[in-house]
Amino acid sequence: MAYVSRAERLKTLFPNEPAFRSKQAEEALFAARTRGWEDVRALPKAVRERLAREVPWTSLREVAVVESAHKDTFKALVEAEDGARVETVLMRNARGGWTVCLSSQVGCAMRCAFCATGRLGLARSLSADEMVDQVRFWQAFLLSSSHPGRISNLVFMGMGEPLANYENVKSALNTIVAHTDIGPTHITVSTVGILPRLEQLLVDKDWPSVRLAISLHSANPKTRKDIVPTSYGDFLPKLLDWTRKYLVALGNRRHHLTFEYVLLCGVNDTDEQADALATFANAAGHARVNVVPYNATDGAFARPADAGVRGFVARLEGRGVTVTVRRAMGDDIAAACGQLAASHPTDR
Fold first, then answer.
1. 112: helix, strand or coil
2. Please, what is the angle between helix 20-28 and helix 45-54, to 10°?
3. Are 277 and 219 in contact (CB under 8 A)?
4. Are 247 and 257 in contact (CB under 8 A)?
5. Backbone CA torsion sign across 225, 230, 234, 235
6. Rounded to 5 degrees, what angle do the CA atoms 259, 126, 333 make?
7. C-beta of residue 170 within 8 angstroms of C-beta of residue 209
8. SS3 for 57?
9. Mean of pLDDT over the chain
10. Three-state secondary structure call for residue 40
11. Are 73 and 333 within 8 A, CB to CB?
């Protein structure tokens, strides 16, 4: 049976009701403290009852939620209607709000060498509803908990490759922007760089003006291929050409590109690798580098010492590159970058 989105169901369910009913119903999904169709008092009782029978309030069921020792990160394992499971993460951010890390697929086909998700392979892509409902899950979690603050940022950096699920990710983004107070410049979509989709979004009028982060991991073609098996010989020059087009078409002060760089001891943390990265980032234009010291997954790699991270960053900054270093959050509950594997916390 073909999948029918919740929005499509709402539009077709009540042909004899006023046209605004479906909009009322969709807006109710994001209303604070509303936990089911029975709570949506703006809708007639008969409408609420039919919705309860035919349109699930959420597409996801909580399996488990775990909290980090620092109490600044939560990870949830959630299950879809077909039994597929994904993980999603809630993190306290520097401005006192919360950032949600969303998953876009069940598993991932990109097979990045350092990533636990990549070792799962790809089971299927998530629907737009299943991505939106990760945000709704955490909204409800915060309202029912003692943790203050609102969700102010979203990152599509969880399980899966977002641009391999382009249409559903786009639909989810537009729904979130339309029905929450999270603006597009507070949303980041991370990708290993699927060039046909990157080219597509440059001309796609329906693609929202969110930020993009490219998982680069090395500016040396051979090293990048070792880390990201889906890379290929002329990927880097093609990506560089795309970054220039992106910055002309969509770039501005708030829409810089970010190159994500997972730092692996003895693999991509040498002076030569830093120099290649600096050359690439400077050639790209208005771009910055986010260094992510490796979070342990299977023991195949090692995290550089803090002094090594500082030296790598200093070398980049000495070449005029704007650099940030991502602070590991939730690594004690396997919630940090590269650690999501959709297993029950008690299985670890």
1. coil
2. 60
3. yes
4. yes
5. negative
6. 65
7. no
8. coil
9. 92
10. coil
11. yes
Question: Which of 167, 158, 170 has its CA nearest to residue 118?
Answer: 158
pLDDT digits (tens, 9 = 90+) for 206-246: 999 999 999 999 999 999 999 999 999 999 999 999 999 99
Go through 302-317 and write b for each residue having 16 or more CB atoms within 10 A of its CB, e for each that does not. Answer: ebbeeebbeebbebbe
State the amino acid at position 334 in one-letter form: A
Helices then strands (H, E): number in the chain?
Answer: 10, 12
Q: Mapping DSSP to helix (H, G, I), strand (E, B) and coil, where does residue 66 land?
A: strand
- Containing 272, the helix (H) or strand (E) segment is helix 271-284
Whole-number Å distance between alpha carbons of 256 and 287: 5
Nearest C-alpha neighbor of 209 from the set 249, 165, 244: 249
The tokens 């950032």 sit on which residue? 99
Contact at 8 Å (CB) between 298 and 248? no
**Measuring CA to CA, which residue among 61, 104, 57 is closest to residue 82?**
61
Closest CA to 239 of 266, 270, 274, 214: 214
- 52's enclosing H/E stretch is helix 45-54
Give the whole-angstrom CA distance, residue 98 versus residue 138. 9
What SS3 class is residue 254?
A: coil
**Which among 244, 190, 195 has a CA at the least distance from the CA of 217?**
190
Strand partners, 90: 74, 100
CA distance 57 to 33: 13
Smallest Cα–Cα separation from 323: which of 261, 268, 273, 280? 261
- CA 78 to chain CA centroid, nearest Å: 16
Which residues touch 162 (CB under 8 Å, ≥6 apart)?
A: 104, 156, 169, 189, 190, 191
The token duo for 93 is 């951010």
Give the model confidence (pLDDT) of 155-203 as tens digits.
999 999 999 999 999 999 999 999 999 999 999 999 999 999 999 999 9
User: Do residues 280 and 219 lie in contact, with contact meaning Cβ atoms separated by under 8 Å?
Assistant: yes
Contact 16, 5 (CB under 8 A): no
The residues that are catalytic are: 87, 337
